[in-house]
Amino acid sequence: MAPYLDPVNQAFVDAGAKAGGPPLQTLRPDEARAVLEGLQQHEPSRDVLRENIDVPVRTSGPVKTVLFKPANASGPLPLAFYFHGGGWILGSPNTHDSLVSDLVRETGCAVAFPYYTPAPEAQFPQQFDEAYAAVEYYVQNGDKHGLRTDKIALAGDSAGGS
């Protein structure tokens, strides 16, 4: 059986190969972030709105979050959280914009994306504390943002899935 990779993932792999350079894991964190951001650069979709919200954290400074909503939304929206992967080092709202926008489109939910401080700039458990603070904030203040918080969903990839 011949190996198969779906076209979207194949395009990502091809873009990485075309960019050249050493593998991400051999780069310094800032270099690896720049490469990944470049590979994921695109125009944001217009059918999904994005609002930047700084959420207070008791143990550190505020955590940046992006609240993604369907542009045509009316009434309070169900809420999901998306916690990004990247080994606690990589990943951002930009690298996950397409994925989170698809999640918004397919579910009709608002999606809160906590952009926790990456390592090595912050050490564990700061990333967890920031993500938890974002959940607390939106559950307690969801009505101010047009959100239903009686039931929430949690999602994530790689480190963010843990």
UniProtKB/TrEMBL annotation:
It comes from Diplodia seriata. InterPro entries: AB_hydrolase_3, AB_hydrolase_fold, GDXG_lipolytic_enzyme. GO terms for molecular function: hydrolase activity. This is Putative alpha/beta hydrolase. Keywords: Hydrolase. Pfam families: Abhydrolase_3. Coiled coil: none annotated. Transmembrane segments: none annotated. The keyword Hydrolase applies. Residues 81-161 form the Alpha/beta hydrolase fold-3 domain.
